[in-house]
Amino acid sequence: MAYQYDLFVIGAGSGGVRASRVAASKGYKVAVAEGSALGGTCVNIGCVPKKLFVYASEYGHGFDEAAGFGWSNKGAEFNWSVLRDNKTKEIERLNGIYGNMLGNAGVEVISGFASFVDAHTVSVDGKTYTAERILIAVGAKPFIPQFDGSEFVVSSNEMFYLDALPKKALVVGGGYIAVEFAGILNGLGVETTLAYRGDQLLRGFDQDVRDFASEEYRKSGIDLRLNTDVARIELADANDQNGARIVHFKDGHSEEFGLILYATGRVPNVDALALENAGIETGKNGAVKVDNNFTTTAGSVFALGDVTDKIQLTPVAIKEAMALIDYWFDGKEVDFDYDNIPTAVFSQPAIGTVGLSEQEAESRGLDFRVYQTDFRAMKHTLSGGTARSLMKLLVNNADEKVIGAHMVGDYSGEIIQGLGIAIKAGATKADFDATVGVHPTSAEEFVTFSANALKERK
Ligand SMILES: Cc1cc2nc3c(=O)[nH]c(=O)nc-3n(C[C@H](O)[C@H](O)[C@H](O)COP(=O)(O)OP(=O)(O)OC[C@H]3O[C@@H](n4cnc5c(N)ncnc54)[C@H](O)[C@@H]3O)c2cc1C
Ligand SMILES: NC(=O)c1ccc[n+]([C@@H]2O[C@H](COP(=O)([O-])OP(=O)(O)OC[C@H]3O[C@@H](n4cnc5c(N)ncnc54)[C@H](O)[C@@H]3O)[C@@H](O)[C@H]2O)c1
What we know:
alpha/beta; five-stranded antiparallel β-sheet
């Protein structure tokens, strides 16, 4: 049967743009449907605008820290609408670049939300399109638990377009988005409370990193409250939808906030897809089920990125798209390595991590040793700041390979990328030791760990 397209991609985000662009450049006839803005979550309401906000927020601390270096700061003021609107202009510039990139590669961009008619046919705004292969790359959307007053909270989506910043904000959650936005708000001068229902933030990260980062967040001014959960929320003035909110916590106390951000996870964005029309099965939270080759239960339909709910990171979606391209064009079975994916949390201070945490290494029954240090970075000898940095290296005793590296402190995201290469390449502790340090940096600690830094493990 002749189809209109070789490939129809649903969603022009991190994974969808890469897959459609490369497939078209290799000779496929490709269309991509996008219901919102080109570039997806990362470009529009994720990594990119978030990082711009982090830069803005860091100045908030920078002005204070500059005094020790001789700068006098005569009443610097922050204007939210300038930041918000400059950010939006930059994102619109990127949207244009994505449009050109797709157009130049010969990809037809169709505006609108797609849904399945059958395993080779999708419908967008009432018009149908047939394709030999269909790729689902629709990403994820914020999950907000439903409770009395949950309509008065916002998700990260809205944070990028707020009319004004509140005087006092509550952030609920304990993952990447919660700690990143708590840091952003705090640095921009908002009185910020971060409430998490569990014992410690950042589940899945190394325990020392979690403890250390939490302490640093507190020192930076965030009011961190653990084992704290919200019972219900109401408007302070029932006639003012945009006014203050009263939060009733489960411990019985109540408090007023101008803004409440729920950062309580993201779930696959499948509701509008009518997956059942194509016989596509889903699992937990609606995640599209795929085999190793990203093939769904309908053989002509593939899925990757956040919608499969594996690891929700942009470079993962992009690498998955490239692996799928190799499978389609070169018949290479996908052998995606989900171990040793470096990642950074752009909180303040930032966290960089790659490989196993101490707890993961223990649960895998490995015999390993840990080198660990924490120190005051040189900058803070004059800044007057009390921030400290943490670095930690795990070495497998059987083959001397470095199996994990973790850092909390300035530039961790930048530093961890290089360590990711070393660990992926199988570097040993001796290789780290044989590497000459870059001085004076914090990063050099990773190549100067001696027996003195061995952690006594219980
Ligand atoms: C606040 C925030 C900060 C983040 N920061 C980082 C970071 O610093 N680093 C990092 O690596 N990751 C970060 N992420 C995660 C990253 O954005 C995602 O992992 C990544 O965007 C996933 O790519 P994707 O291709 O799976 O989906 P997406 O990029 O989400 O793209 C999916 C696209 O599909 C479209 N779509 C949905 N349904 C349909 C439909 N039916 N028809 C047509 N189009 C549809 C959507 O509009 C969207 O444009 C962040 C996420 C958030 C929310
Ligand atoms: N720097 C980055 O790379 C970056 C930044 C932002 C987001 N992301 C990606 O996006 C994903 C989603 O981010 P996220 O922070 O929303 O999710 P997350 O899964 O990282 O964290 C969700 C948090 O909400 C808590 N939670 C869940 N349900 C709750 C409830 N009912 N009440 C109170 N708390 C609840 C969880 O315990 C957890 O701490 C991340 O896992 C990450 O993969 C990456």
